[in-house]
Write a structure and sequence with these properties.
Main location: nucleus
Protein name: DNA polymerase eta
Strand order of the largest sheet: 8-9-1-11-12-10
Radius of gyration: 28 Å
Bound molecules: 2'-deoxycytidine-5'-triphosphate
Distance between the termini: 61 Å
Subcellular location: Nucleus
Number of strands: 18
Pfam families: IMS, IMS_C, POLH-Rev1_HhH
Helix content: 40-55%
Organism: Durusdinium trenchii
Number of helices: 25
Amino acid sequence: MPPLQRGALPPVVGFIDMDCFYVAVERARDPRLLGKPCAVVQYPTGQRGRPDLRPEDDRWRTGGPMGGIIAVSYEARARGVTRQMSGAEAKKVCPEVILVQVPTAFGKADLQIYKDAGDAVVDLLASRCDATEKRSVDEVAIDITGAAEHLLASRAAAELGAAASAATHLADSALSVDAAKVTRSSARQGHDKQQSRDTSELADGWEEVLRRAASDPVAWRLIAGAVVVKELRQQVESTLGFTCSGGVATNKVLAKLGCGLHKPNQQTLLLPHAAPVLLKDLPLDRLPGLGGDFGQAVKSRFGVQSAGELLQVPRPDVLKQFPQRGEWLLALAAGDDSAAEAVKDRQLVKSLSNGKTFFGEKRLRSLEEVDYWLGELTGELHRRYLQQVEKHQRTPSTLQVSLTLDQKEHLTRQQPIQLGSQGTPEQILQTAKACARRAGAVSGVISLGLSLSNMIPLEASSASLSKFFGRKSEGAASKEKGEKPQEKAKAKPKEANLLGACFARAAAAQRASSDQQKAPEVDEGVLAELPLNIQQEILRELGQEPKLKKLRCDVVEIDA
Ligand code: DCP
């Protein structure tokens, strides 16, 4: 094995994509579905008033209204069932297909069981990865540099080579290159080339790869990475019961591309020398950022279809046509690491949102109808808020209602909300209703959204006022350390800073007042920026309730 030169080498990046994920989650709940052609169908819209279907209820559907198909087992795909078919169409092409409807809650689809399963996968992967970046409900990019280096240091090269080659496709094999030629949409449908596995071809390509890798430390790390991914996939299956597919490369764009080449329950290694081979005929829309309008513009501007064809366009022409994104575009088409960002470690969500659309006759015509649906949206949002509190000890401090009207007019109204750790659905609903009223006349609402954002640590929320009380605010503490308070404040939500500032002054005033036996003073300028309920609580703590009348109203619009 060639010597390792840490630091100078590119990272080892893996990509995990769960196989027919919603079906897999349903199978883990109901083993009768194992091995059978089955599909998950959406909740049919316009079913207002019907009782909710909880995850544990009988959700198999044999007839009646059904939403479109959103996940298809590989057994059903082999019999012609595809996503987007209606349940009835699926039954026509495959009469034995079992259709399972997604659960519902608060009058709409409830995807919580799938989200929880996706989170469980991320948690498991995180135990062995340097960084885990959730890319969607069932896709995760992972930085496995550390785990790969550990294997290189602890296992014999021959053992690693044997383990990797027995489990991994090479991205420049004839089979892989063939699979890379299909378009984005057929790749998403699960085309037949993507699903075939030829183990003799696996062995052939690998002999050469292992020989060359003997003098190539980058390749050796990636080969070790393939073993890490194989072991992680086995662990996901044995622990959670889900199979997944994997990719390994030096960046997450290539790792994802590799991952999509062979599914289900397979993995692909994309070594640097294989990138040009694979990308040559790769349809441009398979690359991230090129699946939509921008990709179309690139194709039509230069009359190209594949990444290889784009690389044939003279560089100055590409840069002239796309001065902002030209460099990135060329790096992406070449599979260069500079086109992909590093794997970002898990990020906490910035907001929790829930929404619903009401097209055609279903559009909402009165404030009462808007109120009704705000109530429906509130239930799920409240549940997710409680999860944030429990899992991350964070609570939102802003509520936003957004409405799209018939005339395509989009209105948003925000208000501070102070839920602390035990906020109620009623609190969310009342604040949401207040926002909706501030939006003015609402008729012909075609989409309604409700979100909670500006997450702040629980201890900074006013539910913990008494804890905060008498404690130095962050601003005051950093002043003592000689830091500029505003440097720290940049990273903090506005409300938390205001609250901290308010308390610092109030606490200082209280300390001073206890010496002088005088009532503490509050900085009214700071206090007035806070929502009324926080103002009230602060003033109650300070015994200054009567002053409240002087302060500003409860509605602090952040940006309307
Ligand atoms: N999904 C959805 N609506 C869509 C597409 C997907 O609700 N239009 C859900 C159901 C899928 C899950 O997201 O199970 C993951 O989507 P994928 O595109 O990754 O597809 P699958 O995991 O179902 O299949 P594959 O094995 O091809 O990745």
